[in-house]
Amino acid sequence: xxxxxxxxxxxxxxxxxxxxxxxxxxxxxxxxxxxxxxxxxxxxxxxxxxxxxxxxxxxxxxxxxxxxxxxxxxxxxxxxxxxxxxxxxxxxxxxxxxxxxxxxxxxxxxxxxxxxxxxxxxxxxxxxxxxxxxxxxxxxxxxxxxxxxxxxxxxxxxxxxxxxxxxxxxxxxxxxxxxxxxxxxxxxxxxxxxxxxxxxxxxxxxxxxxxxxxxxxxxxxxxxxxxxxxxxxxxxxxxxxxxxxxxxxxxxxxxxxxxxxxxxxxxxxxxxxxxxxxxxxxxxxxxxxxxxxxxxxxxxxxxxxxxxxxxxxxxxxxxx
Length: 320
Known about the structure:
The protein is mainly α. It is built from 12 helices and 4 strands. It has a two-stranded antiparallel sheet with strand order 1-4. A two-stranded antiparallel ribbon has the order 2-3.
């Protein structure tokens, strides 16, 4: 029991370092070819912060651990929304641009609704299994590409001042960072999935709970670090945009990749977690229009934080 727990933590650490090194190496390579910082941020860095979830879910989907797949994505999204925005909102009230309030947050809510409709086949037709099929995966992938196109169009309409904060590396160092980072992602992903399953089985805890809590929180650490630093620097757009973007990526990209690899059975018990995710996203949307407009105030951030802690306690108590 102690060894799998140590290996699980080690896997999460290797995942995060692997993602960081891969992002740094890939960013340096892109910069060498005169790709803009903004384009790098929207592609390489965005993919990098979602890389832990992507790798963990790829292994879990390939091995048929459907509860880990859905638990990781839904749990990560809830952790992002309730814990990370809760913490960053307590550090400083988070004022955002009108496009975030009117477009990106609603898109993240639509993503939850689309996922709910896709995986609840059994509710609509009782003799049909609830599954995220390969076809569903391609539809989610199309939604992801459409979202990327929206972001591209949004950038063309915005005046953005770039800060040249990407370090150029030697060709050898760039290669080492990229290859080493990818190796770290693969190794860390295997350690996380295998030891999370072993811990769940040895403690009699469901894969669902392990995926929703330990794995979800661990793979969300890059988003936590990014948003807390952004909040401390009073950069609310990055703090909120990072979370909303990550939640959209997780549903549209990561679940699409997992279901294309292997159709994923959906445990209907996850519906309550989807309700929480949809409710939290709706609360965030309403928070943009209460108090000071387009701002998450400290008291609203505290509600998010307390709500998540209460719900997690409820989940754990159900298992005992």
